[in-house]
Automatic annotation (TrEMBL):
EC number: 3.4.11.-
UniProt key word Metal-binding: yes
Protein name: Probable M18 family aminopeptidase 2
Entry superkingdom: Bacteria
Gene that encodes the chain: apeB
GO annotation terms (biological process): proteolysis
Alphabetized UniProt keyword annotations: Aminopeptidase, Hydrolase, Metal-binding, Metalloprotease, Protease, Zinc
Amino acid sequence: MSSAHRFDRGHTDDLMTFLAASPSPYHAVAEAAERLEKAGFRQVAETDAWDASAGGKYVLRGGAIIAWFVPEEASAATPFRIVGAHTDSPNLRVKPLPDTGAQGWRQVAVEIYGGTLLNTWLDRDLGLSGRITLRDGSHRLVNVDRPLLRVPQLAIHLDRGVNADGLKLDKQRHMTPIWGLGEVGEGDLISFVAEETGVDAAEIGGWDLMVHSVEAPAYLGRDQELLAGPRMDNLLSVHAGVAALIAASRPGAALTSIPVLAAFDHEENGSQSDTGAEGPLLGNVLERSVFARGGSYEDKARAFAGTVCLSSDTGHAVHPNYSERHEPGHHPMPNGGPILKVNVNQRYATDGSGRAVFAAACERAGVPWQHFVSNNSMPCGTTIGPITAARHGITTVDIGVAILSMHSARELCGADDPHLLASALTAFLEG
């Protein structure tokens, strides 16, 4: 082990457990909720009246979770400190009529979700996960975490120019996984899912299913200073946010604001849903929290005016084989600490005031940090940050962890960085 190897192995080990337990957004919020419950948080239903009691609470809706901790001394106008993240990752999702096939092969019809790197799903052992909805409106989680499906790549003998010309994949024709041989039967996949989950297939009224790589997260490198795993964009931030919220709400903590974790679904396709950052979920929760404590519209306005959100999502580490694609003066490195993401065209929400908030949190936590800005010739993606700032009128700062292979079925980060991010988020939530 290198003498420079300083990361908190316990935190990183726990992240690996979280990633493995969260093959879908629905599993991720269930895992987050279980950890919050163990820390004394309790679930509140959106259909119930909320009270003014102090303590930890959370709301679940689909693949999203909003959790917050109200200190005993909080007033109706107490501001919030929010860690924002998202639970979804680019992948392959099962179509409404999933049973298909060709040439004697049984296959599963899938739709491409988000901006996934298609080639990373080829020749990989895939499981099936998500949720089913029963006719009574209840849900059951599905996790077939064993080799079940595979998207086979065409052999080089049948595509001689692939290495010289590049791999070209048609999303409709080339990305359909196989899962057996024989005749295609209507209802086969859902009958299989029903058997796996122990329910009657006739009771299944709907489903939200997707594929996932069954390869476990693992340390990588001579000194194990790297971490390889699935869905780090953005479950790495969700896991860090859960850990930070629990740490910030520990007994005896002197909080001057209300710490919040907001983990949304559907960021990878625009956030426009009832569980996405552009929907009303976060605003409703914050407003109801103010009003439950006897607050008025004026109190809500005062609380929002003092609120700050750190939107935590992954960013690009400098790639050793493609360094010319990066901004020459900004080369974030793994294990260099979290990154501050800046884009003056508001693809990220960070400004100078937000930079000061983030820098102060890192300083209090004793955490190094880095800058990220895109090459001018390659416009960057975006996050929930600008959406959160615009929708709720709150100061928002875009941050994250630098990774390689973003949107791959298997991504790579520094093994120090998850702990460094969680430490910075804890200091931020503590105010």
